[in-house]
Design brief:
Helix content is 75%, strand content 0%. The chain is mainly alpha-helical. The chain is globular and about 100 Å long.
Length: 317
Amino acid sequence: MLKKYARKNFKVFICLLIVTAMTSCTILRPPESKEDDSDKKKNPPKSLTQMEEQTDGIILGIEDVQQKRAQQIREEKHPSNESKPETQEGGPKPQSSGLQMSQEQSQGQEQGQEEGEQQANQGQQQNQQESRQESAPTQQPESTAKPIPEPDWNELEFTIETIHEQWNSYEPYANSDGAMNETISNFEKQLISLTEQIMARNEEKTLTAANTLYSYFSDFLKLYAHNQPPEITELRGLARQIIQYGQQEKWIETKPLLEKMKESWQDAKTKMKKPDQMLNSKIEAALSDFQYVVNEKKINLARIKGNILIKNLDQVE
């Protein structure tokens, strides 16, 4: 009887062990990866991506105008051979008028002594005039002044109206998809600021406002599925803001942005599904070069290195 009872208890013990083991496996099962969570996110609304593209276009347009203007100023100070005005060919030559006058003198002498003396006096005065003209420096024809490059403000006004329409379409999604109320409020305020600067046709403040507005798009894009990590958008905005600070001689304000770029790049690499190691190496080299010239306060090189960095970032998928 005791043996029978012991066997029964042993079977119960074995069953308890099996149940415990199965429960432990369920508890210890690793959670789903963040990558799986990101795959479950929906694609960003079209109105959001269009706003990002339109704002990007505003920034690129003004930067292009500023670069062309700077190039024009350099050309005026140090003109290249191609831009030097050429002397006009053709037209009356000084020697031809002198020859014509000498012929008139000979004809006057044949007509009479008195008339000849008058012609001679006139010829002498003419020769003196011509000698003074020849001794004077040759005047180059004035070159036609090139128009100063300016933003197309009418086009910018149309663009900002389009962004307002797109924001009206996206704002309900921003609320329902989990955007922070502070982010939504700050974006709206910055959109108003950008609009006011465009209407006032203030180029520098328009560029500043557009760069600030662009910095909010990465926060919205993080709510959705993505091929390119949202931090890439953030890096583009930081690079442009640093270049603008350099143009304004505000080099001290570039320091925290350079540090932010390092953090954003590290975050971006962790979110790449299929990282391109060669491209990432190019980006890291470009980022290092950009940081060096900014720290050295070399604005022209900062613009060149910054554009190279942005072109490399655009290739990230």
